[in-house]
Write a structure and sequence with these properties.
This protein has 70 residues and is mainly beta. It has no helices and 5 strands.
């Protein structure tokens, strides 16, 4: 099941397991409605997952607009 329009979703990224450079703050580029609306979201360190060995989790929240189409 996916998220409903009008709701928010949380996106996670493990910087240790991904290809992004470790010296920069991760950002998400999201395209909505066939990329007609483009969002740039700064990520923040995920405090709930701090202390996991060999992992560096970051998170951001994305609000899905009411008028969202596939």
């Amino acid at each position: 099941a996916g998220a409903r329009v009008g709701s928010s979703i949380r996106l996670y990224y493990d910087r240790c397991g991904g290809p992004l450079p470790r010296d920069a703050r991760p950002r998400v580029k999201a395209g909505l409605n066939k990329w007609e609306e483009i969002l740039l979201l700064d990520m923040r360190r995920c405090e709930d997952l701090v202390g996991q060995d060999g992992q560096d989790w970051w998170e951001t929240e994305l609000q899905l607009p009411e008028e969202l189409f596939k």
